From TrEMBL:
Source organism phylogeny: Bacteria, Pseudomonadati, Pseudomonadota, Gammaproteobacteria, Pseudomonadales
The protein, known as: Arginine N-succinyltransferase subunit alpha
InterPro entries from the UniProt entry: Acyl_CoA_acyltransferase, Arg_succinylTrfase_AstA/AruG
An example Gene Ontology molecular-function term: arginine N-succinyltransferase activity
Enzyme category, top tier: transferase
Length: 338
């Protein structure tokens, strides 16, 4: 059984392994010991903080096999993108020009540097072992964050966004970056993403062109990358799309990957989550698979379980499930079908 829980300092060696295996573009998971250590400490403080609104808190979760202590993945929630510094992206929209004399009106798509998405809650840092892609474990790693938001809604914004990693080739090159960002930094795509993970995207964004970039002037290979998902990012995209997230007019300023957006109250795992109480039992006549979580803050836990769930009645969990969730008889839990 895999369990999602908050990260701990003892996870650092395993987290470094995940960072080395993660996809280029997952900048919130840098392969740097001190940065990861700081990320863990900051997350621990976020779970401890008594807050009444969305602030700079970052909630870092890991997916663990308790029997081996091996981590199978990780994911995060940043309560407020752009709280301490602007959260930069590229806005993709049409600019219209017209001539009365020629009776011509023409729209041209253009990319503009902006920080419109500052203030939204941001899902980031999603990484899972390749063998678990498109399995219930992948759903757990992504969607259990949403159950956490449902249980502690005051800590988060009314809207949630996430950036999906854009296309890069097998050698780690990005046609979008090569056509745009590389001209201003003279850095390969992978190195720019690494620097973004180690420092911040602000100093990089400040060197980007401040005027609109007309899309038709970019090479066709770069145009084809706008809104294109890296194949290894498709699972993360599909899970959140099923949750009700939609693409918008914003893309990542490094690789052109799409941004997903949703009103918090409309997200499936938040709007349709069922609250219940735990009942410790021996045998379960399972009728379906569910994501199940406790309602704790710093002791938050979530699992996938086969249950006989009946609305309005206690939820029977066996001893192993109760131990994994850190719940006892009568403890509040929440669940939603896979």
């Amino acid at each position: 059984m895999l369990v999602l829980r908050p990260v701990e300092l003892t996870d650092l060696p395993e987290l470094q392994r995940l960072a080395r295996e993660s996809l280029v573009g997952v900048t919130s998971l840098p392969d740097d010991t001190e940065r990861l250590r700081r990320r863990i400490v900051d997350s621990g403080a976020s779970f401890e903080n008594d807050v009444q609104g969305n602030g700079p808190e970052n909630y870092f979760f890991v997916l663990e096999d308790p029997s081996t202590r091996r981590l199978a993945g990780c994911s995060e929630i940043l309560a407020t993108a752009g709280f301490n510094e602007p959260f930069y992206s590229l806005r993709n929209r049409h600019f219209t020009s017209a001539s009365r004399e020629l009776n011509i009106e023409h729209g041209v798509p253009a990319l503009s540097l902006c920080h419109d998405l500052s203030g939204h809650t941001l899902l980031r840092g999603f990484h899972i072992d390749a063998a678990l892609v498109r399995t219930p474990a992948s759903e757990l790693l992504s969607r259990a964050r949403l159950l956490f938001i449902a249980a502690h809604s005051r800590r988060f914004a009314d809207t949630v966004i996430t950036e999906i990693v854009g296309f890069s080739d097998d050698e780690g090159g990005s046609p979008f970056w090569d056509a745009l960002g590389k001209h201003f930094f003279d850095l390969p795509y992978a190195e720019a993403e690494r620097l973004c993970g180690l420092e911040s995207r602000t100093f990089l964004a400040e060197l980007m062109p401040q005027y609109p970039i007309y899309v038709p002037m970019l090479p066709q290979a770069a145009q084809d990358c706008i809104g294109r998902i890296h194949p290894d990012g498709q699972d993360a995209f599909d899970i959140l799309q099923r949750e009700g997230f939609e693409t918008n007019n914003y893309i990542d300023l490094f690789d052109g990957g799409p941004t997903l957006y949703a009103r918090t109250s409309n997200i499936r795992s938040i709007a349709q989550t069922q609250a219940g109480v735990a009942h410790s039992g021996l045998a379960i006549d399972a009728r379906g698979s569910y994501l199940v979580s406790n309602d704790s803050l710093k002791d938050y836990r979530a699992i996938v379980a086969d249950l006989d769930y009946r609305p309005g009645q206690p939820v029977t969990l066996d001893a192993r499930m109760c131990a994994a969730l850190k719940v006892t008889q009568g403890s509040p839990i929440r669940l939603i079908a896979l």
